[in-house]
């Protein structure tokens, strides 16, 4: 969903711990233009169910991937500790 936005080059979403909800969607985004976290959250919110809305956005230079191109979500989770 996030990759459809014209200012997003690459993105990955993980579940992040939250005190109230237990776990919330957290996006890691590589941009190719000017975009704010609020714009991206609104873009996703217009297309998905309420429980799937992205609640946090982190801008990164690169999404970690394996040799075969699979997103290494474990490494993304390690960055939030």
UniProtKB/TrEMBL annotation:
Gene3D superfamilies the UniProt entry points to: 3.30.300.30
InterPro entries assigned: AMP-bd_C (IPR025110), AMP-bd_C_sf (IPR045851)
Domain annotation AMP-binding enzyme C-terminal: ranges: 2-70
One Gene Ontology molecular-function label: CoA-ligase activity
One Pfam family per UniProt: AMP-binding_C
This protein's name: AMP-binding enzyme C-terminal domain-containing protein
């Amino acid at each position: 969903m996030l990759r459809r936005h014209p200012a997003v080059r690459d993105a990955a979403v993980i579940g992040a711990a939250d005190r109230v909800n237990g776990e919330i969607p957290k996006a890691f985004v590589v941009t190719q233009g000017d975009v704010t976290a609020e714009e991206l959250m609104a873009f996703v919110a217009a297309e998905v169910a309420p429980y799937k809305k992205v609640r946090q956005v982190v801008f990164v230079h690169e999404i970690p991937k394996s040799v075969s191109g699979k997103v290494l979500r474990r490494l993304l989770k390690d960055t939030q500790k």
